[in-house]
Amino acid sequence: xxxxxxxxxxxxxxxxxxxxxxxxxxxxxxxxxxYPLYIVGSIAVIWYLVEIPSGWxxxxxxxALVITLVYGIELDAKDGKVPAHVPVLAIGATALQALAWxxxxxxxxxxxxxxxxxxxxxxxxxxxLTKKASLNEEGLSPFARLFIVWHLPLxxxxxxxxxxxxxxxGKGGLGDLLLLLVALYAGFFxxxxxxxxxxxxxxxxxxxxxxxxxxxxxxxxxxxxxxDFLPFSALTNAVxxxxxxxxxxxxxxxVKGNRAPFPYTFFGFPVKGDTIEHTYGxxxxxxxxxxxxxxxxxxxxxxxxxxxxxAKRVYTKDLKRYPEKYKRELALYRxxxxxxxxxxxxxxxxxxxxxxxxxxxxxILFTVMGALAGR
Length: 375
Hints:
This protein is mostly helical.
């Protein structure tokens, strides 16, 4: 049993449970909900790295990665507005990463210089952005807007490159391997969040699992999977458990007699147009009106994905928040009588279930494959 990671696991479970409750109830998880986890989890993992034992370069590198990701979370959470303490975090991350590379004395010179340049650039753009109302403000150059959105995934990628170079040089240990996996995993979901493919709270949840519980703290009921990296097992478990939802929706629609083309009956259901803003989900139909005649069509799956990436997909929560902005759409929905929406169950719930089942039982996919193979 790894005591520091047991403590971190309990902190992650409690935080995910509370965040899930807020996301279901309010469809929003304030960033301050995660602050206690940042503190407890960071202390626990540093405690674990010292016990392995790891060098101070590894510990400094971990602290830099945490600060980099917290900086990203803060930046995004403020809807394009940079709070005053965020630039301080950027400076801290730069200093700690430089300290880490200085301790490690490996072939990381190019990555170190690039990471420093990117973080300093992010700091400068951060100060510039404080003068703007949002990322959409006129006067903000396309390059600056692109840089502000993408510099954090780039920094994490450079940190991963640094640990990869260290390990390839034969100078890294277990702690450095874990940090490489954490950087790759967290960076992947940071990119998903930037591209609007993932809910903000969902991305934070997955990143926090990787940052604070990178290994199984004790042997799960069905044994360790081949890769002792708990975040990956938590994710696969979440995906598998989430597959139950579309089946349940299909059965519900069949019982209720709700008819729609395939595959819409697996992902959505009709709601009353008069109260659509009080039901959570994404609108699956497009409406138009010509000469008093209402037209409606299903939004193709590929178009729905494209709209999600560009943040143009109509979310019922926004109908409630910004009724004036969606005045025309609301009028059409009321005239239509019923509107099909996709289910709005926050993915943070399957993430919570996936983490809990991975922690206690192990990797569902590996366990099932092992059973089928007769092991």
